[in-house]
Specification:
Number of helices of chain A: 14
CATH architecture of the largest domain in chain B: 3-Layer(aba) Sandwich
CATH topology of the largest domain in chain B: D-Maltodextrin-Binding Protein, domain 2
Order of helices and strands of chain A: HHHHHHHHHHHHHH
CATH architecture of chain A: Orthogonal Bundle
Distance between the termini of chain A: 30 Å
CATH class of the largest domain in chain B: Alpha Beta
Shape of chain B: elongated
Structural class of chain A: mainly alpha
Oligomer: heterodimer
Helix content of chain A: over 70%
Radius of gyration of chain A: 23 Å
Number of domains of chain B: 2
Largest interface: A-B, 22 and 29 residues
Shape of chain A: flat
Number of strands of chain A: 0
Number of helices of chain B: 17
Largest sheet of chain A: none
Strand content of chain B: 15-25%
Helix content of chain B: 40-55%
């Protein structure tokens, strides 16, 4: 490779590298640096991290251990979000993509499902407040119709129900994304494979398990990666519904970071939470990219 | 022929390039021209709808007097609490004057050098010392008291009480009987409406119980730290409130303004709120039918002061100073008082400026000790935690009180001074 060949790519890459350094790498490094500083900008080692873990809003596993309702702390809430939201979003997205693949008017239904992704998350949060409202909510309306009127309540007002209500509500918002990615993935599977399976006498379940699922692996990796990152940085919906309450029952890491930085103006602890979030998201993303490249 | 076509294309491209360069150069020249000095002030406050319209009346008088235009921007509680400090720390004064009711927040900003000393722009002899002390540091005063929101007690519809043979209670026992009687009335979902939002309506109600059952001194001691939230006397207040919550006397918290309509239509019986509710529909249109009674046997009440502050980085310092002077004066405050819902901080505003409903509030407030709003005085992180814990307590009064009070105590910090 001669000098000219080396210089030309570098020349075109330079603006991107410069912008990334200025607006991504420098802020990340600076945030990590601030996470080791105290209020007077003195070096405090891991004190900010210890302080964050000592907060009930961040880490409070006692209720979980004792089988009591939330709050469990932001870190555990994010974990619960991943455990419940990820498989449900994957399942509904895949199911809808398969069910609507050859249905007349399927594109219209897909567009309707995808609407949840198109609306701003703040608006999505306001919609969810209405959905769960005792008087105006569609959920309580449904419960009354099916004779379960005794169960009606404002689901986002109670520590016992808010986390689950938010997670299930956001499944509706996020399913559109996984459905679209899976739909694109399904289009990419050669039809010959299904025809060959049919000739060989494979059942629908066998075709799904042996052809569809393996061939959708790249799509699944994309959906898992994007969903995990979204779940870790979830903020706007939680903020607009109950600001992390009641009693910290819906607190999540990104919201706690925001409150520490901009409400309590404690930038050291906010940076410590931001650093933990960065490590978690980067770790997940790096692993999934590695899997994708391997595939 | 081909060569001529190619030439003409080149000429056209050159012409377009020259036009683009000329337009860009002209735009750059225009943008670099020094602009005429803008004399429009920007004011942030928490007031929207009718409250904003009332405030604009006062601002219009200022413009009439001085010729200085003022633009008002309504912020939500969280927007003001969160975005303003960040903007000011960045050296940007996006507002020339900010109206805020949080003394602790004001002193925190002042300690960071983000607010200007406004002591020279008001006649301090006309303003209560207690209002000024909480926003002062040394000789500097960082905020001008503009108006006061008295929180006198429980609001109700007089005709609803008359129709159901109810009378305002004068003792705490009568108050509990009233709650029980209200709950028995057909169509009443709960005796007391509970307001939601960021959490302040619940904290106001709780403070009424702290002052009413524990005395105004307990509220002052909780603010100063002389009494802990985990103390037995504080716990006794929360236990009493918890008993009433468990009895189902309070509604599930919902949007505080929506609850006004529900009190008016008889869904709920009474509603603890500040005097400003008389400016909000449907109360504002039915003042003859709206009354309040104080927390029975109370010796105090909270008065929340709306302060005007001036960012140190404002680019319109002279004009902003004039506005601060105007807002701290009797003329502006009388305009606000005339429109109802608020009390004046300036002693030159005559009693005749108040409507009948507000005059009752003023007269009641003169009979008790006025104390600072608990969470406004302590500030964050306590305020956010207090609001959040109360939201949980309201819907789950069986929650562990010791844990809740310890959480409040953990986030208490000495008020700035």
């Amino acid at each position: 490779m001669n000098l000219r060949q080396t210089k030309i790519p570098l020349f075109f890459l330079a603006p991107t590298i410069l912008l990334l350094t200025l607006f991504v790498i420098f802020p990340v490094v600076n945030t990590i640096y601030i996470s080791f500083l105290g209020e007077e900008d003195e070096f405090v080692g891991l004190d900010n991290y210890a302080e964050v873990f000592s907060r009930r809003n961040f880490w409070a596993p006692q209720n979980l251990v004792e089988g009591k309702p939330p709050p469990y702390g932001a870190l555990i809430h994010n974990g619960i979000w991943i455990v419940l939201h990820l498989p449900l979003s994957l399942f509904f997205g895949l199911a809808l993509a398969i069910l609507l693949r050859d249905v007349k008017g399927g594109a219209v239904i897909k567009s309707a499902v995808f609407l949840g992704m198109v609306i701003p998350m703040i608006v999505g949060g306001i919609l969810l407040r209405f959905v769960y409202d005792d008087r105006a909510g569609i959920l309580n309306g449904f419960l009354r119709i099916v004779g379960l009127g005794d169960l009606t309540r404002t689901w986002t007002a109670y520590p016992q129900t808010i986390l689950l209500a938010l997670i299930l509500g956001t499944v509706w918002i996020w399913t559109g994304f996984s459905m679209i990615v899976y739909s694109a993935g399904l289009e990419g599977i050669p039809k010959e494979l299904f025809e060959a399976a049919k000739i060989d006498g494979a059942s629908r379940w066998q075709t799904f398990r042996r052809i569809t699922v393996p061939m959708l692996k790249p799509a699944t990796i994309i959906v898992i990666t994007m969903t995990l990152l979204w779940e870790l940085k979830i903020f706007d919906i939680v903020w607009v519904i109950q600001q992390g309450g009641p009693g910290g029952a819906s607190m999540v890491m990104a919201l706690m970071m925001f409150l520490e930085a901009f409400l309590n103006r404690s930038f050291g602890t906010a940076s410590a939470i931001a650093t933990m979030l960065t490590v978690l998201t980067f770790g997940f993303a790096a692993y999934m990219v590695y899997r994708m490249v391997k595939e | 022929m081909k060569k001529s076509k190619a030439l003409s294309r080149t000429v056209w491209l050159a012409i377009i390039a020259i036009i683009i360069i000329l337009v860009a150069a002209l735009s750059a020249w225009y943008l670099m021209q020094p602009k005429e000095e803008e004399k429009e002030l920007t004011v942030f406050s928490l007031w929207s709808d009718q409250e904003e319209a009332n405030f604009k009346e006062a601002l219009a008088r200022f413009t009439e007097n001085t010729g200085i235009e003022v633009k008002h921007v309504a912020y939500s509680t969280n927007e003001l609490l969160v975005t303003v400090p960040t903007q000011l720390e960045a050296g940007e004064a996006i507002a020339d004057v900010i109206i805020a009711p949080w003394p602790s927040w004001i002193l925190d900003l002042a300690a960071d050098g983000l607010l200007a000393d406004v002591s020279d722009y008001m006649d301090t002899t006309k303003l209560p010392e207690t209002y000024l002390d909480v926003v002062s540091s040394g000789d500097a005063i960082y905020a001008a008291p503009f108006k006061v929101s008295g929180k006198p007690g429980f609001w109700y519809r007089e005709s609803f009480f008359a129709d159901n043979g109810l009378t305002p209670p004068t003792t705490y026992e009568e108050f509990k009987t009233l709650l029980a009687d209200l709950s028995e009335i057909e169509g009443v979902e709960a005796a007391v409406a509970s307001g939601d939002g960021t959490g302040w309506p619940l904290s106001d109600t709780t403070e009424a119980f702290i002052i009413g059952l524990g005395g105004y001194q307990l509220q002052e001691n909780l603010i100063s730290g002389a009494t802990a939230f985990t103390s037995s006397e504080t716990k006794a207040v929360f236990e009493e409130l918890g008993d009433l919550l468990q009895a189902g006397y309070f509604s599930v918290p919902d949007d505080w303004q929506t609850q006004l309509q529900r009190v008016y239509d008889g869904t709920y019986g009474i509603y603890f709120q500040g005097g400003f509710v008389t400016t909000i529909s449907p109360f504002s249109e039915n003042l003859d039918d709206i009354g309040f009674f104080p927390f029975p046997e109370t010796d105090g009440a909270t008065g929340s002061v709306d302060y005007a502050v001036m960012p140190a980085a404002t680019k319109n310092m002279d004009e902003a100073q004039q506005l601060i002077e105007f807002l701290a004066g009797a003329e502006a405050q009388e305009i606000m008082v005339n429109q109802g819902g608020f009390l004046a901080a300036n002693s030159d505003v005559p009693e005749s400026a108040y409507n009948a409903a507000d005059l009752k509030v003023v007269q009641f407030m003169q009979t008790v000790m006025i104390v600072s709003d608990l969470d406004d005085a302590i500030g964050n992180p306590f305020q956010q935690t207090f609001w959040d814990q109360l939201k949980a307590f309201w819907v789950d009064p069986t929650m562990d009180l010791d844990t809740m009070l310890q959480t409040l105590q953990d986030d208490w910090t000495p008020p700035s001074s």
